[in-house]
Write a structure and sequence with these properties.
The protein is mainly β. The chain is about 5% helix and about 60% strand.
């Protein structure tokens, strides 16, 4: 069974580093855990003049998760995560609270939308990837967001459903209005998983400048067999990346001991203007020394040419990284 996908879907607003979080307080009914990561990232890419430059993309994330029992079957929870990069303010990635139980979890605040668990089928690289998996704001992580997620055992298989509604307000990006997204994953015990989702949000614009509703649909499939994993993603979008955009991603991974090798292909096209918005092949290798520390190398072959999105965007990219989770 693809347990990683199930875990990603069930944790409505959590991130992978929460799995390593340390419990700093606990009594009979309540607990508090602190986690995060330190991640050094050196990004090498040619600039407009053709010179190779190294950019420091090092970051740190810290998260705090709290939980307290209300009854034997219902609990309250809260979650915060901030990210800091050199020279910037702290970015509050998650800031929410809610309740949970056998029915699932309901949260309000800044939290994930419902389509991230669909793009997670192919967004598996340590750095690159997900170029054809961009999401409208209401389907991504955003504030003023009321979200639900539930996971249900169906005779050994797993069904995860997720839905969220984003209210118009000051926390929305660029004055976007109300929006929503819904998604579902059905993961079979034999290793096959399916995912589908849809989202809409008002406040976007057509290329003509007219007001429009951003619309987005995703479909995904994956298969896990031993140390091998393969997945595909398809998206159809209106009034977001372009008036009409279609794209797909393919991903494959192989685990050899403590090292994971991954390759992805990303393609996204502006259908009305026949312009490629994304076209790349990426490969990476990540070595896990233990559950807390990993290093990785990632290379992206950018297949775009100057007629697509500009000459600067057509250069390849090489990344070296080291990540410590706590």
């Amino acid at each position: 069974m693809n347990k990683k996908l199930i875990a990603l879907a069930v944790a409505a607003a959590s991130i992978s580093s929460v799995a390593n979080a340390a419990e700093v307080y606990s009594d009979e009914t309540s607990s508090l855990a602190v986690g995060g990561r330190f991640e050094a990232r050196a990004v090498m890419q040619d600039n407009d003049a053709g010179d190779s430059k190294v950019n420091d993309k090092t970051r740190v994330r810290i998260n705090v998760a709290g939980k307290t029992d209300i009854t034997d079957s219902v609990y309250a929870l809260g979650f915060w995560e901030g990210e800091y990069t050199d020279g910037s303010e702290v970015n509050n990635r998650h800031l929410n609270a809610g309740i949970g139980g056998d029915f699932g979890q309901i949260r309000y605040g800044k939290t994930d939308g419902s389509l991230g668990m669909i793009t997670d089928f192919t967004d598996i690289m340590s750095y690159h990837g997900n170029e054809a998996g961009g999401k409208i704001s209401a389907a991504d992580r955003t504030g003023n967001n009321l979200a639900y997620v539930g996971s249900f055992d169906l005779g050994g298989n797993n069904l995860t459903v997720k839905a969220n509604y984003v209210f118009e307000g000051d926390s929305n990006k660029d004055g976007l209005e109300d929006g929503y997204s819904v998604g579902a994953i059905y993961a079979m015990d034999m290793g096959l998983a399916f995912g589908a989702g849809y989202g809409e949000q008002d406040g976007y614009e057509k290329e003509s400048g007219a007001d429009a509703t951003g619309k987005q649909a995703f479909g995904a499939i994956s298969y896990t067999y031993g140390d091998f994993y393969v997945a595909g993603l398809y998206q159809d979008t209106r009034n977001f990346q372009a008036d009409k955009a279609q794209g797909y991603e393919f991903a494959a991974a192989y685990t050899y001991g403590k090292t994971v090798f991954v390759a992805t292909y990303n393609y996204l096209e502006d259908k009305d203007n026949s312009v490629d918005l994304a076209d790349s092949i990426a490969i990476d290798a990540t070595h896990y020394f233990n559950k807390n520390f990993r290093t990785y190398a990632s290379y992206k072959f950018n297949n775009l040419d100057s007629k697509d999105v500009g000459k600067a965007a057509a250069s390849d990219e090489f990344v070296l990284g080291a990540r410590y989770d706590f």
